[in-house]
Design a protein that fits this description.
Layout: E1 3-9, H1 13-24, E2 31-38, H2 44-54, E3 58-63, H3 68-77, E4 83-86, E5 92-93, H4 97-105, E6 111-120, E7 125-126, H5 133-138, E8 148-149, H6 150-155, H7 168-176, E9 185-197, H8 202-208, H9 210-223, H10 225-232, H11 234-265, H12 267-278
Parallel strand pairs: 1-2, 1-4, 2-3, 6-9
Antiparallel strand pairs: 4-8, 5-9, 6-7
Helix pairs in contact: 1-2
């Protein structure tokens, strides 16, 4: 049984060696690793070429920039392997992750992942709640580096390439796991995935950019509205509308605070404010 590790890379050359070394270190030998250069402007090309010379299980493709979802889809389309493991170019995996996953694949599990830790700027456990599909609809419970079958990826038309700012992995799991029973999803009881924390990354950026985050979440909810209605009914609509109202309130407060600061800077306005305060 061959597993294809898909490594999309966009301007991550400085981390690529560490990522690919973690693949080369695998105790199970029956793998291939497809590196997809997604239009990088750094020296990704030169770094990747070195790995082709080290081991012929590494394969390399270069494409125009289209985002991480596009790069993953491109890489998966190039493999004939039955099982897929995405791995971002700045992350890494434990040396026995593939071996443990294959043992579980043979037992009939359809999705396999593990415990995880942050490394880099932060070195802490990556805490995720226990899996259930209903809980997955509320929040992402599975990081991108989990094992799945290529045929399931084909069935759901891969990653949605319109999700360029983030959450493309969560949206992928929502549609992929819709028809897979909870008991066929397994989290291995060991730490096998290491997620690099940097000063700025896509997940940090989108969490700071509330407007883009709200739009992306709305896209997920609307795209899978039937599933959300089935699981949460009208209650979900109320929660969603409340979140939108809270966001609008926060935005209005920001604009009001900015306007008040500008008014207070004006000398005449300062005098008026003092008179008002004395009333």
């Amino acid at each position: 049984m061959k597993i294809s590790v898909i490594v999309p890379c966009y301007n991550q050359a400085e981390y690529l060696d560490e990522c690919l070394q973690s693949v080369l270190n695998q105790t199970d030998m029956n793998w291939e690793c497809i590196i997809v250069n997604d239009g990088s402007l750094d020296n990704t090309h030169e770094v990747a070429k070195k790995w082709l010379a080290k081991d012929d299980r590494f394969k390399y493709f270069k494409k125009d920039n289209g985002g991480v979802a596009s790069a993953r889809n491109f890489g998966i389309s190039k493999t004939e392997a039955e099982w897929i493991l995405p791995l971002d170019a700045d992350d890494k995996i434990a040396e026995n992750y593939l071996e443990k996953a294959i043992e579980s694949i043979k037992k009939g599990y359809k999705i396999i992942y593990c415990k995880a830790e942050f490394f880099g700027e932060t070195t802490l456990p990556f805490h995720l709640k226990n899996y259930s599909y209903k809980q997955l609809l509320k929040e992402n419970l599975i990081f991108v580096s989990a094992f799945f079958r290529k045929q399931d990826w084909e069935k759901v038309n891969g990653y949605d390439e319109t999700f360029t700012f983030g959450y493309e992995d969560w949206e992928f799991w929502i549609k992929l796991l819709k028809d897979i029973p909870d008991e066929e999803v397994l989290r291995l009881d060991f730490t096998g995935f290491f997620y690099r924390r940097k000063e700025m990354s896509r997940d940090i950026w989108i969490n700071k950019n509330k407007l883009e985050k709200q739009r992306t979440l709305a896209d997920i909810y609307y795209k899978h509205a039937e599933i959300y209605h089935k699981n949460f009914g009208v209650y979900h609509d109320l929660i969603n509308s409340n979140e939108e109202l809270r966001y609008e309130r926060d935005e209005l407060k920001k604009k009001t605070d900015t306007l008040l600061r500008k008014i207070r800077k004006n000398s005449i306005s300062k005098l008026l404010f003092k008179l008002i305060e004395k009333l």
